[in-house]
């Protein structure tokens, strides 16, 4: 285990609920392996109390930042003293870091964590066409990061058409070379297909995509990490499709967060 001493710097993790969070058990061994005297601790914070607790966290000077999970990712935007451009663009924060001047700056690693997870598994992104199913917060973050990593095009498909169109127009506005469309998912040869919806979290959920439309040469990636193999991934695997669990996105994010914290505070 991690040895917590009087000198230990604390990295919080705030959310509601928080008991299911995997980040502390993944990031603490990373800090220990780097010889950093830093410990990540979960903090149960109801949405209604975020503002009040924020002031307390700021005044706790051995607290060098905190990870943010549901339901605080969007609200935190307004409370940070400054924002990394990616966090501002996505409209959500998942790490707040205390900077050297004591201020709290918000960062967003969901998308870049997803990309790092793909790269760790040597899954091709460069020049690849992407089919994004879903247009919520995770989809927006991943879309920006995939473009940054060299994806050729992103086609967005979502239950609520307006949200798919909104994401498509943001992508096209920022990166004119991209083809972004809305509509029901129609996988094409060789695509990287991403389930960015919450379908698959519960056993009774419908599949986000008809697995009969999947063919070898495609890659199917999930955002859902629990269960590690969703019903969709399992069906895809049975059809000989390359699959990528949502767990890799968490690992990628945790690596980036550890780098970012250690760069300033170890
Ligand atoms: P949002 O609420 O912002 O978006 C949810 C998305 O799922 C929307 O596109 C929504 O469609 C779609 N959706 C929800 N229910 C249904 C349904 N019954 N049928 C069709 N589509 C549906 O959530 P997030 O983007 O923040 O999160 C999405 C998922 O990603 C969650 O499961 C979350 O746990 C996971 N996630 C995983 C991370 C990781 O590190 N592995 C990081 C971040 C998120 P509509 O627009 O029509 O409502």
Tell me the structural class. Answer: alpha/beta
CATH class of the largest domain: Alpha Beta
Write the CATH architecture name of the largest domain.
Answer: 3-Layer(aba) Sandwich
- How many domains, in number, for the residues? 2
What is the CATH superfamily classification of the largest domain?
NAD(P)-binding Rossmann-like Domain
- N- to C-terminal distance: 18 Å
Q: Uncertain segments of ≥5 residues (pLDDT<50)?
A: none
Indicate the mean pLDDT.
94
Do you know the CATH topology of the largest domain?
A: Rossmann fold
Shape summary: globular
How many distinct beta strands?
11
Helix share bin: 25-40%
List SSEs in N-to-C order.
Answer: EHEHEHEHEEHEHEHEEHEH
Strand order of the largest sheet: 2-1-3-5-6-4
Radius of gyration: 19 Å
Number of helices: 9
How would you sum up the major sheet? 6 strands, mixed
Ligands, deduplicated: NADPH dihydro-nicotinamide-adenine-dinucleotide phosphate
Strand content: 15-25%
Please, could you describe this protein's structure?
Helix content is 36%, strand content 19%. It has 9 helices and 11 strands. The strands form 2 sheets. A 6-stranded mixed beta sheet has the order 2-1-3-5-6-4. The protein has a 5-stranded parallel beta sheet with strand order 8-7-9-10-11, with helices on both faces. Strand 5 (95-98) and strand 6 form a beta hairpin. The longest helix has 19 residues, at 247-265. The radius of gyration is 19 Å and the shape is globular. The protein starts with 8 loop residues before the first strand and ends with a helix. Bound molecules: NADPH dihydro-nicotinamide-adenine-dinucleotide phosphate. Residues 110, 134-139, 158-160, 163, 196-199, 201, 223-225, 246, 249-250, 253 line the site of NADPH dihydro-nicotinamide-adenine-dinucleotide phosphate.
